[in-house]
Structure formats: structure tokens, C-alpha cells
Amino acid sequence: MERHSYALDGSRFADTRDKIFNHGRFYSHQPPLLATLEAPLYWVIYAAGLQFSNNAPFDWAFYLFVLFTNGLAFALTVVVLDSVFALAAIPAPARAFYALVLPLGTWLLPYGAVSDNHGISALLLAFVIYLLLAIETRGPSLWRCWLLGGAMGLASVIEVLPLVSFVPLVAVHLAVRADPRRRAHLLAAGVAFLLPLLAHAALNVPITGDVVPAGLHFELFDYPGSPFDATTLSGDVKVRPVAELFGYANEAMFTRKGFFTLAPVMFIGLLSGVLGWRWWRRFRGVHLVLIAGTLASLAVSLLTTNNFGGVAVGFRHATYLAPAFLILLLPVLASRQRWVNAASGAIAVMAIGSAVVLTVYAVRWPWDDLILPLAKPLGPWQSYLPVVGHVLTGVP
After folding, report:
1. Coil/strand/helix, residue 336
2. Distance between alpha carbon 267 and the CA centroid of its chain, in Å?
């Protein structure tokens, strides 16, 4: 924003690893629309006399930027989950408690403490699921369908994975349940979906030459001094034996990166989605979208990576799925049976335990190769409460 260019050359971020080289310039490998939408916030921060710095004792600009992007997205995800739980008739005190506590026990917690696209896309996915359930319970409307299409479009150009998982499933779901007399609803969803894609195209074509995100242009990572090669790039299908693929999936989900092991509420949500088949009968279409979309996203993530998403905690490509896993817990959370209520309480306690572990080992710096068994040394208290540490000591 300061230089009115998407090129990294001459910026304080020119030495970042995650970049491409095209037209004689370096660019971020991330799709450009999210950065464009977040630029007005940085303009406000910059106008207040602050700017990003790589070597300041405490970067107030970065802290405020994260607070009002991913931090706000996490807070809004809690609000959306509360609304979803309300649609399932969970009583007010309980649903507010679950909406707040359960996300803390997922990878949304560490990735909500830094600047990335996963928290934003998680919010968008949560909103999509809420709208699908609202359409089922309250009926379709032009406004709901417009919001649904827009949220799906934004998620597709920010995270990319939804484009090959949730988008086709949502499209089929809407087409199957659509009232032939209300084709305007489908049209509203379709137009709203296309708008973010057109905005992405207008920004991306000057950078890569086409609409394909820079991160999928593998040839643009081939430049002198590039840290990337065929073994470290994600996005293309990695052809490998079935046993090797299952071994990689086990390492990503359970043993090495501990995606489910360190955040078990998400795995319980997946099990609940399967075992709670009868409860979902009134929302069968949405249920199928949730199950199939989540599994498809996980499958594509595992098939197109071989380095667990690089140096990052958990399996970051699947972070945005956290709201889907939590919403699949509805058969347990909404049950009125006493023993199931006890299970709901146990799940909440488990989420709190995960939140403690993630806070201690992952929140301090999510861009770290955190692996199981956990042997990472703890940092000074200031690294967990950087704002307090900076105010009291002047050092983060």
C-alpha cells in the first residue's frame, strides 16, 4: 500500500521465502484479493504513524493489524457458531459457552494470533454453513442466497481448497432443493459467487498472466536462490504408493504434526458427523455437504502436499475446516439425554485442555515445526503476553 504496488521489491518483506518471480519482480505467492481487502485497515494504522517493521522490539502495527483481521475473524466465528447452535435449539447459556470454548481447542487459536488466510476462510466457511442451515429452517431468500454465494466466492479465492470441495457440493445442494419458481435465488447466489472471482482475476492476471493463483504456478518459483523445488511445493498431485500416502496422512493427522491429536474435538466432530446420521435427517443436504466437503478438503490437501504445509504448526491447509468439525458436533451438543449431556461437558473440558497445550506450544509462534512428541522448550512469559511484556519492560 505504501508503494502502490503488489511487487515485493524494495519493501521490508523482500527477503520472505514464500514468493514468486515474474516480469522481473518478486510477488507474494498468496492470492492478492485478501491483501487488497485488508489494505484499508493498514492505511488507518499507517495514517496513525505506525508501519510494519521486521526489527522493532514490539511491532504495534503488526499487533493491531492481526487484532483487527484474524483476531476479529476468530471473534466473529464464535458469533456465527452461536447462531448455528441457536438454529439447533441449544439453550442460550450452553450455546454461548460451546461457541466460545470449542474453537479455542482447535488450530484457529494459534493461527488467529498471526496474519494468515486460514482464520478468515474459517469464518467464511462457518458463515456458509450457517446460511445453509438458515435456508433449511427459515426458507431461501434473495438476501441469504446472495450472502451464501458471496461467502463461497471469497473463500474460494482466499483459501482455494473450497473451490474443489465445498463449492460444487453447495451448488448441487442448492440445485436439488431449488424451487423451480424461485430461480432468482440461484441466480443471486451465482452472481454473488462470481464477483469475488472476477475481482481476483482483475488483480491476479497482471501478476501471473492468468487467473491461476501464484502459488500454483510452479515455474515461477524457479529463480536463482529459490528455496523451493518439486519436493517442497504444494498444489500438484503427488503420485505415490497407497501405503506411503496412508503413512503420510497418519503423520499429518495423528503422529507427527498431530492435527487431530492436539485438537481432538475436531476428530470427535468428524465421528459425530458419521454416528449422528439420524439426528441430521432434517438437514440431510447440509449434512452431506459438511461431511463430503470436509473429507474432500482433507483428501485434496493430503494428495497435493508432501511436507505437511511447510514449517508451520499442525497441518495448516486443513485449519479452515475447524468450524465444520465443530458444527458436526451438533448431535451431541443438542441432545437432551443426560448421558449425552455429560459427553458434551467432557468435550468442552477436552477443548479447554487443548487450548492450554496450544497456547503453551503453538500460539507463541505458529510458524514453527512443532512435532510430536512435544519437546519444544517453553519461552519467557513475555512471549505469551507480548503486549503486557512490552508495556512493563519495553521488550516483547
Report:
1. coil
2. 16
